[in-house]
């Protein structure tokens, strides 16, 4: 546990100025609000949360595509702001959600997969292509596909291409932002299997973002739960699923619809207040919906979850001793 | 979104898939408007290129004694001058053939200039957004608020009419549509994940703009270009018609119409011939443009 | 007898440049009053086309045909009669609550529109009914909401408005095409509950279309599994999830990680291959190109087996052995 | 036709910059000047003699003093009566260069004007002024005392005002002008009250629109149609076409002054080549038509002092032209700019002739005022002029304008300037004639211009309109009537 | 709302300023203003006087600012050619252009909206093809050519309408038809595209699902949304219209602004040309401003909650 995490964030913030329509002044939106996370080499960190809670924004910042408003992202302990763009790019690569928009429709698959090599001028043209073909083979794309265009591929095949592109430079960390949400169940399982195999083969570290808790449970080692830009709970995967501490995590788990013909539709104790990211509630942002909210929740923000270790940002858990802490 | 999952016929899954080029060739063949329009345009381009070979006479040689000879199908017409002669006794067919050169050259050249300006501005605005976009939008608004014909007329009046000036003026004035469309599309594209992937791979902005964004604009660019070429050709004709475009004796169709208009009540063919040629060319270009648009977005939107 | 909706040999053909795309290939099913039928299947298998065909809302390129299409003893192929039923006794809600409401009109107008058209009556009566319905779907201060525009509501609220809108005319059948797919899980759970409660209270039949097997297992009375435009298996939820007969149904269930059943980090079940092209006829079993058990017989006509309660389309009569997850 | 209304609708192809004849060079302005205003004297076109109009009597007291007796009982259109004050005011105003009337030469011979009685005035000239009567009978229209409120023709009048047979009924700049008959017109034996009630004048720049209007009955009279159209119109029912010879001469002005940047034109061989290259006769016969005569001197032959005697005539000879060009070192071609403002078909014919001897011509076709600018800033190589001499039958109104050192002179030949200036102050007719002849010969020998031909004017009118045409291109509406 | 309008206004003012600089620069830099002012026969001294009195010897920036200040006070200068206040000239001509513009716009809209809706509702069918054929032909036929043909037919052969001028309302028919036809295609295309877009929206399907008759769905649900961009286009088209009016007005000798501008180009009458360019640009700017505000007002999504 004393090892330097391969990727970590320190008090990461990201604000957007958003227009609320023509007639109103711009408002500030805290998309990511003081996130502390760390990922150890070789592990998979799952991030879950509802739509709009800041998962993708976080992913963009982890990829260095979006500058942080404050706080920093560190790779091997070094702030990525100090790294050259290209050097960072060699080590951290993305897989995105939408298999349709993640491939340039005007390029052949071979062009798409060799693109990073070309950008970095690694090897000769022939070497680049050879490497790309090897990888395409590895992710299970038929050999004849090299000269095809993305539009001829199914969603699953596209996602394989995206994976090949991400891996062609042999990165250490892969940030997967909902890589299977757009896929059918039967294809999703293929991609998940592939990701798990590749992780073992290449010794990859994953940050795996999803709103599908079953998937995260299946693939992740650690899980962070986000709500309105904050990490509200973080723990090893068993702990989260077996003994969720934060009421939101519990609600989330309850609302997962696993195959259970007799279970019926779960009854959620959540209040109806829909979160408005532009006007988050004071104190604990979850308190308007929280079934167990009590007096300090509406005024005092709970202590954030530390980067290392586990815990929940909740006044309820603060009163009981934290689990095996950092 | 309609799933375009590729085909795998049942008995032998994953078997022969049609090659993309054959597929699009077939789709082109299924676009009658593209075929007809494109055919006419190509024909006109060929005529323009081979004008010296095709024209039966020198388009500039006048014969003041044999003026306004009617076309061959009228009384008094002759096979010597199939479409007759103009008010200075020049062979009308030859002038018409050379006129295609002027119209097409001005159309293409002006739109090339406009395309470069508009695309560059649109790309920058759409891709970078924020301040850059504000500047681009502002420039476009200013441009749009200028009455284009009037400004073109004024500039041509100041600097004199010639093919070069007309090309430059139209090129400098007609970039707005390129900018608007490219900006919107580039803004859309730059939010797509393949751009993020390229960024994440460390690609430079220049690389992204030229290799990832620009190629995807090609279809729109072609469609706008056809519309704009047609409109530039018409605008040149209008300028020449008003006497402020290409100057005589250059055989521009607009100029031919302008010169023939004085004769329209007595020798209607003098104005009808270049008028029809012009309308046909513009019609064909627009038709081809429509076909291209349908080819690119089969649901016929926008 | 007793069936509210009877569909026999429903087909939807779409003219495409590549040929006729047969989106729905001879579906036969029925829905009884008050029951929930879930139609489940992967993307593009024809679920939406089926629902649109029932409502006569197909795009112009699509052609519908059916041997029988009866709703409460009315022949729906008679378009004039069908129009009187559509939006009245048969209502529909769509997937995207964001776009399914017209941004230009306040929701009050949109709520009362169908009511005024089908039931007539005064505007005030319609508005009163709208308030009642909004209240029913759990929207607070419903009277004020009538003047609001769709953009002023959150996704969950909009979907509730959609449901209220569908219920305005007191329909007997509600067709819901992926009504919760665009929603967050917690909101999905709330909407599903709402639907469930309403159904029990009002006794409406529901055709619920989704690709989420977990969801289906929770709400369905009966389940129809579709593949490539055709029904492959149909039965009660218990039958489908407890003893699936069709290899596709079995494989599909294996694909999703199920806490408790699939161990963490272990490979999941997969279905190799891709969905066949829907253009043109498919002789024999539609699933055979991907079926691990496929054999010669599958290439010719495949019979529908089982009885009314549990039907499946396969050459195998006996329950197929549970498929082992085949990883690539 | 507007027979019933006893009105005539006339169209002109250029907009009038000002309704005041002193502040426009446009033919339409000259026409309005004659119809709305009166001059002191009037020329009898049959005899060529000067006859009374606003002045009943005049005598030259000496070479530099002219005494006039004015007509009594004349009123301006606003009812105020005409007397010596008006003449003194008008002539003083226009002869003061500070007031910048557009063609100063018509008045700059006047030194001062004095009132010698209620109805008599005395004009002192700056020196012998042979053309004085010419100007007094043509351009010098009399306006009421105190008419102008400042220089450059500024007035506070709602409508322009004179004593002529017609008065302004309405005026819109660049738009329609309506004249109404002056019921109180006195005139004289040589300028009589009008018979028409109204004249409406519209600007219609396009000839084909004018023709359309004529043919559709929206117009009763137009002038300046090209030959082809006129001839074809003549065959249409309801339209009558008349052609009339005019004083208007077409010639190419060649820029040779020091300010001119084109070196080629400073070579006499090039200029001669230009003269040889153009088949004036062919253009004159075919394009311009009947009433057009080829000229060799830059003046109208009936003008006092104009002669072709001893003036070199260049015949159409493209071979010689080519040879001359080759000799001058332009065998491989030469590019020149041609400025023109009317008769574009003639420009085009010229361009084509020049093209045949290897001279490429860039045409700059523009409005007269713009071309005047260009000429005066010496940025013109060749200028195609069509000069009407303000209808003045004296050479001083033509040749000196382009060769006598005036602003439009693009040659600035010192010798010519000297000769022409001298001629303007010599009273003896023969001596003047000789000086003019010398100048005309020099112009031809040096090939400083390409004289081409005279330009007839074609008038097209509705059938039933009785009108007479004159070589001075002035429409005397007061003589018009419907049959 | 106020903030939005103010912001939009600020932008409009900025655009107008930019246009004014262009208008000023374009026409002042070139051409010899002084000699144009001086008129024929002016001597060097005259020109010098004019240069001084008109401030033509001062730095361009100062000239611009002076000009701008004058313009803001409604003083558009004096026409070089007509020697009259430009404002007066413009006032006397603008009426005709406005009549022409309104008539053309009315013709264009009455043609374009129904045709566009028809083409969209039956998109892909022969009705659509006929409509798009009409629009293609409209685009291809040069307006000046059409104008001449119309004159030939209606004025000469049928003698139904006057060939030129602006004296009565009949005089406006031919020019308005020409101009209206000229701008119909873009309108029609936009209505069609907007309608196809609107019709493909989920809310249209929702409306259909309610069992409402399709004409009502089309006219109420789709058209309302499709017309919003048309409002915007009307302003853009007005620019085109005015541009087209230069050609049309001069063919029909219709004494309006476009014709005045065309004349002033020929006469190098900079103050008039400047004023017309500026005026037309301002009209455009103001109209876009208005249409933006109206659009924002129309579109409930943008309205205050
Ligand atoms: N560029 C941006 N400008 C303004 N707001 C933004 C921007 N990007 C994201 N946001 C806002 O930030 C919040 C977080 O967005 P983000 O995309 O990170 O959410 P998410 O958790 O990935 O949601 P989803 O599950 O829908 O993908 C949202 O409210 C979103 O609207
Ligand atoms: N307008 C159309 N033109 C051509 N093909 C269409 C059209 N609409 C749908 N299809 C095709 O019809 C088939 C069935 O589509 P349908 O929308 O019913 O699928 P679905 O099961 O609802 O899928 P999803 O889960 O993605 O909504 C698909 O293969 C689709 O590609
Ligand atoms: Mg996201
Ligand atoms: Mg669907």
From TrEMBL, chain A:
Pfam families: ABC_tran, oligo_HPY. The keyword rRNA-binding does not apply. Keywords: ATP-binding, Nucleotide-binding, Transport. This is ABC transporter ATP-binding protein. Belongs to the ABC transporter superfamily. GO terms for molecular function: ATP binding. Its main location: membrane. It comes from Paracoccus rhizosphaerae. It is a peripheral membrane protein. Gene3D superfamilies: P-loop containing nucleotide triphosphate hydrolases. The lineage of its organism: Bacteria, Pseudomonadati, Pseudomonadota, Alphaproteobacteria, Rhodobacterales. PROSITE patterns: ABC_TRANSPORTER_1, ABC_TRANSPORTER_2. It is found in: Cell inner membrane. Residues 7-253 form the ABC transporter domain.
From TrEMBL, chain B:
The keyword Thylakoid does not apply. It is found in: Cell membrane. Keywords: Cell membrane, Membrane, Transmembrane, Transmembrane helix, Transport. Residues 100-289 form the ABC transmembrane type-1 domain. It is a multi-pass membrane protein. The chain crosses the membrane at residues 34-55, 102-128, 148-173, 221-246, 266-288. The keyword Ubl conjugation does not apply. It comes from the Bacteria. CDD domains: TM_PBP2 (cd06261). Belongs to the binding-protein-dependent transport system permease family. This is ABC transporter permease. It comes from Paracoccus rhizosphaerae.
Automatic annotation (TrEMBL), chain C:
CDD domains: ABC_NikE_OppD_transporters. It is a peripheral membrane protein. One of its GO terms (molecular function) is ATP binding. Pfam families: ABC_tran (PF00005), oligo_HPY (PF08352). NCBIfam families: oligo_HPY. Belongs to the ABC transporter superfamily. This is ABC transporter ATP-binding protein. The lineage of its organism: Bacteria, Pseudomonadati, Pseudomonadota, Alphaproteobacteria, Rhodobacterales.
UniProtKB/TrEMBL annotation, chain E:
The keyword Membrane applies. It comes from the Bacteria. Its main location: membrane. The chain crosses the membrane at residues 98-122, 134-156, 168-184, 226-252, 272-298. It is found in: Cell membrane. Keywords: Cell membrane, Membrane, Transmembrane, Transmembrane helix, Transport. Residues 94-291 form the ABC transmembrane type-1 domain. The keyword Cell membrane applies. SUPFAM superfamilies: MetI-like. It is a multi-pass membrane protein. Belongs to the binding-protein-dependent transport system permease family. This is ABC transporter permease. It comes from Paracoccus rhizosphaerae. The lineage of its organism: Bacteria, Pseudomonadati, Pseudomonadota, Alphaproteobacteria, Rhodobacterales.
């Amino acid at each position: 546990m004393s090892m330097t995490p391969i990727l970590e964030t320190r008090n990461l913030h990201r604000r957007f100025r958003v227009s609320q329509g023509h007639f109103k002044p711009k408002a500030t939106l805290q998309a990511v609000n003081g996130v502390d996370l760390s990922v150890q080499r070789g592990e998979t960190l799952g991030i879950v949360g509802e739509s709009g809670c800041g998962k993708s924004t976080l992913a963009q910042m982890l990829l260095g595509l979006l500058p942080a408003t404050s706080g920093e992202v560190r790779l091997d302990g070094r702030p990525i702001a100090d790294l050259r763009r290209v050097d960072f790019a060699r080590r951290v690569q993305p897989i995105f959600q939408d298999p349709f928009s993640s491939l340039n429709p005007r390029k052949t698959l071979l062009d798409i997969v060799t693109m990073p090599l070309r950008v970095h001028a690694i090897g000769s043209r022939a070497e680049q292509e050879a490497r790309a073909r090897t990888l395409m083979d590895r992710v299970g794309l038929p050999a004849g596909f090299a000269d095809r265009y993305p539009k001829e591929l199914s969603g699953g095949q596209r996602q394989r291409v995206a994976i090949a592109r991400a891996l062609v430079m042999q990165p250490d960390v892969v940030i997967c932002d909902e890589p299977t949400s757009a896929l059918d169940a039967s294809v999703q399982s293929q991609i998940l299997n592939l990701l798990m195999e590749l992780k073992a083969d290449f010794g990859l570290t994953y940050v795996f973002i999803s709103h599908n808790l079953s998937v995260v449970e299946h693939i992740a080692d650690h899980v962070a739960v986000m709500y309105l830009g904050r990490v509200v709970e973080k723990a090893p995967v068993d702990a989260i699923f077996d003994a969720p501490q934060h009421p939101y995590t519990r609600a989330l788990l309850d609302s997962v619809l696993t195959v259970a013909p007799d279970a019926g539709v779960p009854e959620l104790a959540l209040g109806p207040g829909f979160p408005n990211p532009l006007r988050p509630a004071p104190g604990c942002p979850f308190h308007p919906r929280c079934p167990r909210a009590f007096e300090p929740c509406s005024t005092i923000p709970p202590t954030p979850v530390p980067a290392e270790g586990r815990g929940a940002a909740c006044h309820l858990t603060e009163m009981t001793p934290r689990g095996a802490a950092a | 979104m309609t799933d375009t999952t590729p085909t795998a016929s049942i008995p032998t899954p994953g078997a022969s898939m049609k090659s993309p080029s054959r597929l699009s060739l077939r789709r082109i063949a299924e676009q009658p408007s593209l075929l007809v329009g494109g055919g006419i345009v190509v024909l006109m381009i060929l005529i323009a290129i081979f004008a010296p070979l095709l024209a039966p006479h020198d388009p500039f040689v006048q014969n003041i004694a044999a003026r306004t000879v009617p076309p061959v199908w009228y009384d008094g017409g002759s096979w010597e001058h199939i479409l007759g002669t103009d008010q200075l006794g020049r062979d009308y067919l030859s002038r018409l053939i050379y006129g295609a050169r002027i119209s097409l050259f001005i159309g293409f050249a002006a739109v090339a200039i406009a395309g470069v300006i508009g695309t560059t501005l649109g790309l920058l605005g759409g891709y970078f957004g924020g301040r850059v976009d504000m500047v681009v939008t502002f420039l476009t608004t200013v441009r749009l608020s200028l009455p284009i014909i009037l400004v073109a007329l004024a500039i041509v009046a100041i600097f004199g009419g010639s093919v070069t000036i007309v090309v430059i003026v139209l090129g400098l004035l007609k970039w707005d549509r390129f900018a608007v469309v490219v900006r919107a599309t580039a803004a859309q594209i730059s939010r797509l994940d393949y751009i993020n992937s390229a960024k994440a791979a460390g690609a430079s902005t220049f690389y992204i703009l030229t290799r990832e964004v620009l190629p995807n604009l090609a279809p729109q660019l072609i469609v706008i270009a056809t519309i704009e070429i047609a409109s530039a050709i018409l605008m040149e004709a209008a300028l020449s018609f008003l006497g402020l475009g290409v100057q005589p004796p250059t055989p521009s169709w607009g100029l031919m119409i302008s010169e023939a208009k004085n004769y329209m009540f007595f020798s209607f063919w003098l104005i009808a011939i270049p008028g029809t040629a012009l309308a046909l060319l513009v019609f064909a270009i627009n038709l081809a443009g429509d076909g291209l648009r349908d080819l690119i977005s089969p649901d016929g939107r926008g | 007898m007793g069936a509210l909706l009877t569909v026999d040999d429903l087909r939807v053909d779409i003219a495409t440049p590549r040929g006729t795309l047969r989106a729905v290939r001879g579906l036969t099913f029925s829905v009884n009053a008050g029951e929930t039928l879930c139609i489940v299947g992967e993307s593009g298998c024809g679920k939406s086309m089926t629902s649109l065909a029932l409502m006569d809302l197909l795009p112009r390129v699509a052609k519908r045909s059916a041997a029988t299409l009866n709703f409460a003893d009315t022949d729906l192929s008679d378009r004039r009669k069908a129009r009187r039923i559509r939006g009245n006794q048969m209502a529909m809600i769509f997937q995207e609550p964001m776009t399914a409401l017209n941004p230009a009109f306040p929701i009050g107008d949109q709520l009362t529109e169908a009511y005024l058209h089908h039931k007539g009556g005064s505007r005030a009566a319609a508005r009163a009914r709208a308030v009642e319905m909004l209240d029913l779907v759990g929207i607070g201060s419903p009277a004020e909401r009538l003047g609001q525009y769709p953009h002023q509501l959150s996704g969950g609220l909009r979907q509730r408005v959609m449901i209220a809108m569908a219920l305005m005319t007191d329909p007997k059948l509600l067709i819901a095409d992926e009504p919760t797919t665009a929603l967050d899980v917690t909101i999905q759970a709330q909407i599903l509950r709402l639907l469930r409660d309403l159904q029990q209270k009002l006794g409406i039949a529901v055709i619920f279309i989704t690709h989420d097997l977990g969801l289906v297992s929770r709400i369905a009375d009966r389940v129809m599994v579709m593949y490539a435009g055709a029904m492959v298996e149909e039965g009660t939820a218990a039958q489908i999830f407890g003893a699936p007969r069709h290899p596709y149904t079995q494989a599909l269930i294996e694909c999703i990680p199920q806490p408790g059943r699939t161990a963490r980090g272990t490979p999941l079940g997969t279905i190799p291959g891709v969905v066949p092209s829907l253009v043109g006829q498919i002789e024999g079993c539609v699933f055979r190109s991907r079926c691990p058990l496929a054999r010669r017989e599958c290439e010719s006509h495949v019979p529908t087996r089982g009885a009314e309660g549990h039907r499946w389309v396969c050459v195998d009569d006996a329950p197929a052995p549970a498929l082992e997850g085949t990883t690539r | 036709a507007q027979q019933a209304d006893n009105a005539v609708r006339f169209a002109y192809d250029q907009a009038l910059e000002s309704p005041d004849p002193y502040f426009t060079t446009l033919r339409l302005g000259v026409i309005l000047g004659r119809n709305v205003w009166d001059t002191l004297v009037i020329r009898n076109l049959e005899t060529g003699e000067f006859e009374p109009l606003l002045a009943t009597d005049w005598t030259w007291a000496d070479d530099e003093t002219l005494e006039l007796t004015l007509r009594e009982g004349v009123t301006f259109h606003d009812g105020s009566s005409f007397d010596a004050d008006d003449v003194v005011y008008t002539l003083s105003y226009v002869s003061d260069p500070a007031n910048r009337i557009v063609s100063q030469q018509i008045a700059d011979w006047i030194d001062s004007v004095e009132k010698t009685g209620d109805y008599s005035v005395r004009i002192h000239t700056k020196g012998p002024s042979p053309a004085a009567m010419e100007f007094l009978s043509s351009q010098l229209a009399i306006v009421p005392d105190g008419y102008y409120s400042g220089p450059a023709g500024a007035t506070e009048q709602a409508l322009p005002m004179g004593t002529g047979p017609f008065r302004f009924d309405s005026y819109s700049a660049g738009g329609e002008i309506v004249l109404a008959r002056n019921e109180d017109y006195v005139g004289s034996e040589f300028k009589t009250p009008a018979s028409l009630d109204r004249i409406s004048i519209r600007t219609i720049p396009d000839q084909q629109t004018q023709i359309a209007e004529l043919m559709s009955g929206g117009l009763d009279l137009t002038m300046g149609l090209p030959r082809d159209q006129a001839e074809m119109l003549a065959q249409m029912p309801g339209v009558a076409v008349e052609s009339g010879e005019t004083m208007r001469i077409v010639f190419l002005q060649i820029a040779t002054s020091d300010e001119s940047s084109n070196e080629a034109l400073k070579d006499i061989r090039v200029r001669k080549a230009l003269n040889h290259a153009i088949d004036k006769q062919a253009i004159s016969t075919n394009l311009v038509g009947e009433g057009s005569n080829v000229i060799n001197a830059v003046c109208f032959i009936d003008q006092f002092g104009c002669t072709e005697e001893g003036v070199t005539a260049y015949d159409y000879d493209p071979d010689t032209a080519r040879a001359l060009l080759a000799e001058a070192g332009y065998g491989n071609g030469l590019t020149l700019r041609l400025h023109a403002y009317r008769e574009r078909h003639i420009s085009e014919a010229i361009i084509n002739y020049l093209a045949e001897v290897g001279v490429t011509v860039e045409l700059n076709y523009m409005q007269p005022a713009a071309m005047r600018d260009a000429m005066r800033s010496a940025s013109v190589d060749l200028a195609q002029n069509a000069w009407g001499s303000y209808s003045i039958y004296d050479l001083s109104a033509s040749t000196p304008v382009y060769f006598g050192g005036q602003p439009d002179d693009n040659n600035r030949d010192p010798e010519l300037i000297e000769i022409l200036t001298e001629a303007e102050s010599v009273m003896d007719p023969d001596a003047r004639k000789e000086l003019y002849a010398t100048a005309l010969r020099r112009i031809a020998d040096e090939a400083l211009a390409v004289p081409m031909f005279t330009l007839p004017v074609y008038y097209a009118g509705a059938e039933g309109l009785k009108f007479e045409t004159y070589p001075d291109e002035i429409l005397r509406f007061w003589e018009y009537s419907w049959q | 709302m106020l903030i939005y309008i103010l912001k939009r206004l600020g932008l409009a003012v900025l655009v107008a300023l930019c246009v004014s600089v262009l208008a000023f620069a374009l026409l002042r830099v070139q051409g010899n203003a002084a000699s144009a002012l001086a008129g024929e026969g002016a001597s060097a001294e005259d020109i010098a006087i004019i240069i001084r009195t008109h401030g033509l010897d001062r730095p361009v920036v100062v000239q611009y600012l002076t000009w701008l200040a004058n313009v803001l006070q409604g003083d558009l200068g004096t026409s070089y050619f007509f020697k009259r206040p430009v404002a007066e000239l413009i006032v006397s001509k603008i009426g005709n252009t406005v009549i022409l513009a309104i008539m053309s716009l009315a013709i264009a809209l009455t043609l374009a909206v129904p045709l566009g809706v028809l083409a969209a509702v039956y998109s892909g069918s022969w009705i659509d093809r006929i409509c798009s054929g009409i629009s293609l032909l409209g685009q291809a036929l040069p307006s000046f050519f059409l104008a001449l043909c119309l004159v030939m037919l209606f004025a000469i052969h049928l003698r139904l309408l006057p060939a030129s001028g602006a004296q009565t309302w009949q005089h406006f028919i031919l020019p308005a038809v020409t101009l209206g036809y000229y701008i119909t295609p873009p309108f029609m295309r936009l209505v069609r595209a907007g309608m196809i877009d609107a019709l493909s929206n989920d809310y249209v399907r929702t409306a259909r699902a309610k069992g409402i008759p399709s004409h009502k769905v089309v006219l109420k649900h789709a058209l309302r949304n499709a017309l919003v961009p048309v409002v915007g286009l009307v302003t853009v088209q007005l620019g085109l219209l005015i541009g087209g009016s230069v050609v049309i007005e001069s063919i029909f000798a219709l004494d309006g602004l476009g014709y005045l501008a065309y004349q002033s180009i020929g006469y190098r009458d900079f103050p008039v040309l400047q004023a017309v360019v500026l005026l037309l640009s301002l009209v455009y700017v103001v109209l876009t401003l208005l249409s933006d505000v109206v659009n924002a007002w129309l579109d409930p999504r943008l309205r205050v909650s």
